[in-house]
Amino acid sequence: MDDQECIATRFEAERGHLRAVAYRMLGSTAEADDAVQETWIRLSRSDTSDVANLRAWLTTVVARVCLNMLRSRTTRREASLEAHVPDPVVSPERGLDPEQQALLGDAVGLALFVVLDSLTPAERVAFVLHDVFALPFDEIAPIVDRSPTATRQLASRARRRVRGAPVPDAGLDGQWQVVEAFLAAAREGDFERLLAVLDPDVVVRSDGGPARPELVTLVHGARHVAEQAMSFRRFAETSTRVLVNGIPGGVAWNPDGSPFAVLSVTVSHGRIVEIDVLADPDRLATLDLALVTR
């Protein structure tokens, strides 16, 4: 095996780790794959003969790539940003496969990724590298071009924001009971039953993308959400039960078999606190739904 083949083999051994780092930073599986590919290109052009810890070197490289991608993203309109739904990881109801588990790690639900999207690029990189992947601040500091002390402050600010993300209840069975009760009430148009399963401060975020601007919405409060229950009838009547980033959700289908939308429901303390709907056809087309059947 020549040197290039050896490097390629070692890189493939770290691909899952790098993809997980990139997905946490970018909230997009497609962009995460792009970042990993760029990392491979930089590795193949570098002399790593003196690198003692290749994983650490690769993690630093992919972090720099992700930071540049975060900084160069086209600025969205404020309303669109608030309604932006990160790329979901959709799994069959029976559970995540090993590759998906490696990608998500201990993170559960899209709600966490929504909060991460609200951080500055430097805050997100510092938080993910330190709090999720346990890199020391003196190694993160050169990546974000800060001192170790300032980097610690970045992560601390991010941590305070992340603590505000809703935490799903333990146990999928209990979560599914709440979700099914919500969908049944939506199907029947039962306003009071809807209020019974919705947290008073529930948030519904719908992202239809440029192709469906009418589906780019953000709704706050149980009564407002209950009043729009008709919009969830499609999920109640035709969707396939799935896990979305490890928590209950569904895929609604178009008549031609293409996905219409992916729904994720966060249940905390026995009530629904957040509903995230990805209805952007361009982004839906990039999702791997091969394991999800109607």
User: Which regions have little confidence, pLDDT < 50, spanning 5+ residues?
Assistant: none
Largest sheet: 7 strands, mixed
State the separation between the terminal residues, measured CA to CA. Answer: 46 Å
Order of helices and strands: HHHHEHHHHHHHEEHHEEEEH
CATH architecture type of the largest domain: Roll
Into how many domains do the coordinates divide?
Answer: 3
The residue fraction in helices comes out at 40-55%
Strand content: 15-25%
By DSSP (H or I, 4+ residues per run), the number of helices equals 14
**Class by SSE composition:** alpha+beta
Average pLDDT works out at 89
Query: What's the CATH class of the largest domain, please?
Result: Alpha Beta
CATH-defined fold name of the largest domain? Nuclear Transport Factor 2, Chain: A
Task: Give an account of the 3D structure.
By secondary structure, this protein is α+β, with helices and mostly antiparallel strands. The protein folds into 3 domains: 1-73, Orthogonal Bundle (Rna Polymerase Sigma Factor, Chain: A), CATH 1.10.1740.10; 111-165, Arc Repressor Mutant, subunit A (Orthogonal Bundle), CATH 1.10.10; 172-284, Nuclear Transport Factor 2, Chain: A (Roll), CATH 3.10.450.50. Helices cover 52% and strands 16% of the residues. The protein contains 14 helices and 7 strands. Strands 1-4-5-6-7-2-3 form a 7-stranded mixed beta sheet. Helix 2 (29-44) packs across helix 3 (54-72). The model has no long low-confidence stretch (mean pLDDT 89).
